[in-house]
Amino acid sequence: MDKIALVVGASGIIGSNLAQELLANGWTTYGLARKPNTEIAGLQPVAADLLNETGLETALADVAPTHVFITSWMRNDTEAENIRVNSAMVRNLLSVLSPKKSVQHVALVTGLKHYLGPFEAYAKEGVLPPTPLREEQPRLPIENFYYAQEDEVYAAAERDGFTWSIHRPHTIIGKAVGNQMNMGTTLAVYATLCKETGRPFRWPGSKAQWEGLSDVTDARVIAKQLIWAATTEEAKNEAYNVVNGDVFRWSWLWGRIADWFGVEAVGFDGTIHPLEREETFDQTLWGLIRRRSNLVEADLNRLVSPWHTDLDLGRPIEVMTDMKNSRKRGFTVFQSTEDSFFDLFKQLREDRLIP
After folding, report:
1. Non-local CB neighbours of 303 within 8 Å, separated by 6+ positions
2. What is the pLDDT of residues 47-70, one digit of tens each?
3. Catalytic pick from 30, 146, 190, 240?
4. How many Å apart are CA 303 and CA 210, to the nearest integer?
5. Per-residue pLDDT tens for 130-175?
6. What pTM was computed for the model?
7. What Pfam families does its record include (predicted)?
8. What is the CATH number of domain 4-169?
9. 146 a catalytic residue
10. Beta-carbon count within 10 A of 272 CB
11. Residue 147 designated active-site
């Protein structure tokens, strides 16, 4: 049977890696975004705004996917607005596809804010969950746009009869430009600027994150899990955490990253030093580096997301993730976290995004 994928958010870290994995496995693959990715060979771009249902109908008129992968979301000023906007995006998409009767499976990517709370209450005292984070942990008693997105998928599945899967990654490590949450590239640019100025590569986060155990999710790993869940009968209609499969302490990995860039590592010194401070990422200095090294991206803000890196590295608890739900059903992909970062840094250098 033909496998026709619609990747929603195909320009992002997860979506672009997923599109490449699908194409490599012989899927007919459409990539939907407001500004579609045209750099992936074989990906059929679909330009659409998920908040414009009429425009969405027009854009998808000739597309009848068997599998839908939702990797996109939009950040807003309040959680109430996050809920309104992001639930509408999922609802509009599935409503437009409903009359086609082609959809067999819908996969939704959310994340660990399912357990740690939304941006307005993220990892705050009073809502801190026990770790490792497990799929069976109940929803927090606070509003969360991830819950609203899930509920839209559940409602559409009941209406249209397709199966579903929910995927909850930790911090995603992979290449994307213009992404809202991009720790790997943010740290690469930070280290590059430290080297240029002679500043130390100083740990920006909390003591708990510096000393505690952690894990991350390689974009290539979640791409494989998304396809596995969509094509494995016993994997359907379940929620899955997804991380690399190893654990580490930042107190170890920080020095390894510093060595890769040839800068001096400085660990936790008793104070949090947010990367979002204005002087950390100097656009003028980046312009000088870009011109000297012939880099391709002039806008520093399209490479870094310090607000999100600060959010993750500043958490007051260690965070690691249990993957038993997919492991016991046969998903055994493993990725070294150290290699995730180093592979990314090499790719950024090869693509002339960092010197």
Report:
1. 177, 182, 185, 186, 189, 297, 353
2. 999 999 999 999 999 999 999 999
3. 146
4. 24
5. 899 999 999 998 999 999 999 999 999 999 999 999 999 999 999 9
6. 0.95
7. PRISE
8. 3.40.50.720
9. yes
10. 15
11. no
